[in-house]
Each structure stands twice: as C-alpha cells, then as structure tokens.
Write a structure and sequence with these properties.
10 helices; alpha+beta; single chain; 6-stranded antiparallel β-barrel
C-alpha cells in the first residue's frame, strides 16, 4: 500500500474529536480486508481482530492509534446585516494563533466550506491591534444569509479544517490531522505486513475515538478487549524551528518512548525487534505520564504492560503538521515484526525482567 496515498485518504477525511463517524467508516473500509473481525463500538472506535495460530485461549496484543483530530464546534449563530456568521469553540488542543485566515468545513445538514475571519488590524481599536485574537473575535463565514445558515447549521455542529495533504521534498508530507492519522496509517501497514505471515497471539487493532479530549476510546476498548499487552502509537515532537534540542528528526525512524506509563519489558522487546530489523530508532524520555493512549491502556482492569511507539512530527496541532512517510512505513514494519515475535514465553519473560530489576 502506498504510504503517501494512504496518508492522503486518512488526513483528508474529517473526524473531529467526538464526531469521528466519517473517519471511522474510512478506517473500517481499509482494515476490513486485512482482518478477521471488525466492528465500530458504541463510542466510535474501530476495533479489528486478526487471529493468531496459537492454541485457544490465545493471548492478545492491542495496538491503539487514535483516529480523532483537533477541530472546532459551532457555539453561536450571529446575524450581521442579514448575513449569518458562526461563533466558535474548540475541540481538543487547538492553538488559536493558527486559526485566523484558515478555511474550514462546517458539518451541518450538509457540508459548508467557510473561512475563519475577523476584522483587519487597521479596523480594530488601537489597544487590540497587537493582541492575539480570541474566540470572541473570530467567526466562520460560509457566505450565506442568516436565514439559510439557520436552516443548515445548528449550535454544536462540528467544524474541521480544510487542508489537503501536500507532498514535500525528501519523502516529507504536510497537512492537517497527521496527529494521529500517521499512526493509523502505521497500524494499517502493520496489518498489511502480517498478511501471509504466521504469528501466535491474537492482534486487536483499535483506532480509538476522542483521544484529543479525554483518551476515551483507549479506556473503553482496553477494558472491553482485555489485552495481555498493548502498544499505543502516536506522534512526538521532532527537531525543527524552535525545537532544536529534540533528539528526533524527520526520516530518522520511529521513537520507542520511555516513561512511567511505559513497561520496561515492552521497551526492551520493541528495541530487540528494531535490532532484528536493523532499523534505526530513537527514544524520548519523560518523567510524568504522557498525554497519549498509553496512559489509559496501562491502567485498564488490573493493569496492562504497555509500550509507546511515536512518529516524529513537526508543527503539532496546526494545519501544516509534517511527517516523513518513511517513518510511518518503518513504524508499521516495527509493529508487524513485533507481533510475529510474540510467543507463549513473552509474558513470563517480562515478569521475570521486572523482578530482576528489583
């Protein structure tokens, strides 16, 4: 599967946090031919199972990559000289500095393309000219009179950003929602990698809903699917303008992360897999639980040994997020090979490793 075409399909399909229906349908379409069972749960996460060859009951590995994206929501419909304008509120970690001048799609009774506008600086009071716009200053203009806006749009309708995926040099791509459709793409490539390969454990691939707002899909899917181990796949900050001290570079391979919500045995197993593949990987260490699905997976039921694989990304939570497609492909291959190496001794070896460390 061509990784850039896959990323284009995934990023250009809308799915703001809490309104993941269109992207869930797209992921289901992509995963169904590659798995044995697939469903969308009652909260909007896509759950697909690929059966292993081991004796039942087989252990289960859960891969989680969130499918929601940051976005906006209609807060109020206002009238100005007979024209309808939409006041906004945010869905997820939207940086308001990046909103002014963007194009967006309002998902009402039908999709409406609009622009996010405000008064130009010269028309603002002097004391407001040097300040960042607030949500009270911004509106979405869909170019319709208020009567039509009232018919087509309701308070609470989601708004996604209108940004195509753009190819750049050196296998880089830029666009919206690469956080975290890049990881959904990696899981898709993992499932493709496993076609025709033998493995012992059952693999549960989950495209989780509402990570950007509350890690909801990871909590509920991990509780329902009862995995014996799990890996979250997300993006992380790559070296670039304003972040020169990051150890991660675009095209330098995925990161195997280290932190209090990551199991040491999973870190070792992922590193051993990368070594077997002769794949270059990096690591990011942090001292507090991170803001990814790994946090929710780890604390499900009696606890789940969890790993975290991250894809380096620049300009997170903007409309020009940038990744290297080769890193997405490597992450998929790393996950696929990890699955093939799981056996009936894996959990015992992880437990023994924890005791040895103590």
């Amino acid at each position: 599967m061509n990784s850039i075409k896959l990323l284009q399909q995934l990023t250009e399909t809308p799915g703001p946090s809490g309104f993941e229906g269109p992207i869930a349908a797209k992921v289901r379409e992509l995963w169904e031919p590659l798995t044995d069972e697939i469903s969308v749960d009652r909260l909007g996460s896509v759950i697909a199972i690929k059966h292993g060859r081991g004796q039942e009951p087989r252990p289960r590995l859960l891969l989680a990559a969130h499918l929601d994206e940051i976005g906006l929501m209609v807060k109020q419909i206002v009238n100005h000289n007979g024209n309808g304008f939409l006041r906004l509120t945010k869905l997820g970690g939207v940086d308001i500095r990046h909103l002014y001048g963007q194009t967006a799609v309002v998902h009402g009774q039908r999709d409406l393309v609009g622009v996010i506008g405000s008064l130009p600086a010269r028309m603002l009071p002097q004391e407001r000219r040097s300040k960042v716009y607030g949500y009270e200053d911004l509106v979405v203009d869909v170019g319709l009179p208020q009567s039509e806006v009232n018919e087509l749009v309701s308070v609470g309708d989601p708004i996604s950003f209108r940004q195509p995926l753009r190819k750049m040099l050196n296998h880089n791509v830029a666009g919206k929602a690469l956080d975290n459709r890049a990881s959904v793409a990696a899981v898709t490539l993992c499932l493709e990698y496993l076609e025709g390969r033998a493995f012992d454990w059952d693999l549960v691939a989950v495209a989780t809903a509402q990570e950007e707002t509350r890690l909801l899909g990871a909590y509920t899917a991990a509780f329902a699917e009862q995995p014996d181990a799990a890996i979250a796949i997300d993006v992380c900050f790559a070296k670039g303008a304003g972040l020169s001290d990051s150890p991660l570079i675009l095209g330098g391979g995925p990161s195997i992360d280290i932190g209090p919500d990551i199991h040491p045995g999973m870190i070792k197993a992922l590193r051993d897999t990368a070594k077997a593949l002769e794949m270059k990987v990096s690591s990011t260490a942090y001292g507090r639980p991170g803001g990814t699905d790994a946090y929710a997976l780890q604390v499900s039921r009696a606890g789940v040994p969890t790993g975290l694989v991250s894809i380096p990304l620049r300009y997170m939570h903007t409309m020009v997020e940038t990744v290297n497609a080769a890193d997405v492909e490597r992450a998929g291959r790393l996950l696929g090979e990890f699955v093939t190496r799981l056996d009936d001794k894996f959990l015992d070896e992880m437990a023994k490793g924890m005791m040895d460390e103590g």
